[in-house]
Specification:
This protein has 406 residues and is α/β, with parallel strands linked by helices. The chain contains 16 helices and 13 strands. The longest helix is centred in the middle third of the chain and has 31 residues.
Length: 406
């Protein structure tokens, strides 16, 4: 039996996929509300294909509990935030989960950590915790690092089709956990050492962060000298070895906006490019805010309550608001202005901010200017309803020529 620890954006799809693929699975989460909802058939977030996957997993016998299970295989998917002062990883959730596992685990159990960690986390924090509690690594407990590699909005597909990495000190437990993932993963599963697995995941997201930062810096350069950044990128990308991304209002989610900080925190002085990229991407919500002020002034809008932000999620077609650029923007605003701005997101149902609307028509009726922060399919399908509005299209996803860019 496999006990999946943590039933959030990564753990729940993983538990469901394992169960649907014929494994005996119990998903554990410390939040009673999350477990209760799953037991009653409620999925706590929206995701393409997850309802069908949930139904299949339930038919195959998946269970949900607040209790850690006595078994020989654990997959840990708890959060790994970073400490904003030092930029170093906060391993407390992982250590708490491991401590709870060791209270019930069978001798020789495999503990596979899927949570993204900074290089050396297993050596510096997890292994010492296991030994401190009186367990011998390699005999009583086998520690594995199997970093997740899936994208919200396309999780079910990517669980099946993305390559995976298994980091381990010993080949035998590595092969065992590889066999577990092979029950659903149709792509290559690479076995390496733990530290390489840790580093590989962080490097992947840091690479993406740096490339996004280049596009965002280009947008600022072009804005400063009245050039069309999208035209420049379009032409530059015709070069066979150039592939510049599009700029945007910032970087959100729990991967690209967080993982590079692990490297900055652990390797200060060696991560100058990474640090600059982080600062560039973190500055974009403020850049959008400044553009909003400029466009308001140009169009004679003096009342901030007549401006609406479209999109609260951190990316298109998901309800995930972790590190959302819109929330970052609101956080940076002067208090009187943020209280006035209207906000709407068709995917985000819970009320998170002041002046958040649940009805698109009511939202549009109350604003003269719309700042498109997220490129949901919804806004493209309802573009005609924006007629007559002043539009700042930070995603360059609308067709109308009557719009402003970042």
């Amino acid at each position: 039996m496999i006990n999946v620890i943590g039933l959030g954006y990564i753990g729940l799809p993983t538990a469901l996929m394992l169960a649907a693929s014929g494994n005996e699975v119990i998903g554990t989460d410390v939040k009673k509300e999350t477990v209760s909802k799953l037991q009653n058939g409620e999925i706590p977030f929206e995701e393409v294909g997850i309802q069908e996957l949930y139904d299949e997993a339930v038919n195959k016998g998946v269970q949900f509990s607040t209790e850690y299970q006595e078994t020989d295989t654990y997959i840990v998917t708890v959060p790994t935030p970073y400490m904003k002062s030092s930029k170093k990883i906060d391993p407390s959730y992982i250590l708490s989960a491991v401590e709870s596992i060791l209270k019930v685990a069978k001798k020789g159990a495999i503990v596979a950590i899927e949570s993204t960690v900074s290089p050396g986390t297993m050596d510096k924090f997890v292994k010492p915790k296991i030994e401190e509690l009186g367990f011998k690594l390699g005999e009583d407990i086998h520690l594995i690092h199997t970093p997740e590699r899936i994208l919200p909005g396309n999780m079910v597909y990517e669980l099946r089709h993305n390559s995976r990495t298994v980091g381990a000190d010993d080949l035998e437990p590595a092969e065992k956990i590889k066999a577990v993932y092979e029950t659903f993963c149709e792509s290559e599963i690479v076995i390496t050492d733990i530290r390489s697995a840790e580093m590989t995941k962080v490097v992947e997201n840091t690479y993406r962060d740096i490339n996004i930062a280049f596009a965002n810096e280009l947008a600022k350069i072009c804005r400063s000298d009245d050039m069309d950044v999208y035209e420049i990128i379009r032409i530059a990308n015709k070069h066979p070895r150039v592939s510049i991304l599009n700029p945007g209002p910032g970087v959100g989610g729990h991967c690209i906006s967080v993982d590079p900080w692990f490297l900055v925190g652990d390797y200060p002085g060696l991560t100058n490019l990474i640090l600059t990229a982080r600062h560039t991407n973190d500055s974009m919500p403020e850049h959008v805010l400044q553009r909003t002020y400029e466009i308001m002034l140009e169009n004679g809008i003096t009342d901030p309550s007549r401006v609406g932000l479209y999109g609260l999620a951190y990316k298109a077609n998901v309800d995930d608001v972790r590190e959302s650029p819109t929330l970052q923007l609101l956080d940076k605003m002067a208090k009187n202005l943020s209280n006035g701005l209207k906000v709407y997101d068709p995917w985000v149902k819970q009320d998170l901010v002041h002046n958040q609307y649940q009805d698109f028509e009511a939202f549009l009726n109350d604003v003269d200017m719309v700042v498109v922060m997220v490129g949901h399919d919804h806004i493209k399908q309802h573009e005609s309803e924006l007629l007559g509005k002043i539009i700042l299209d930070t995603q360059n996803i609308l067709q109308t020529e009557q719009r402003y860019f970042i």
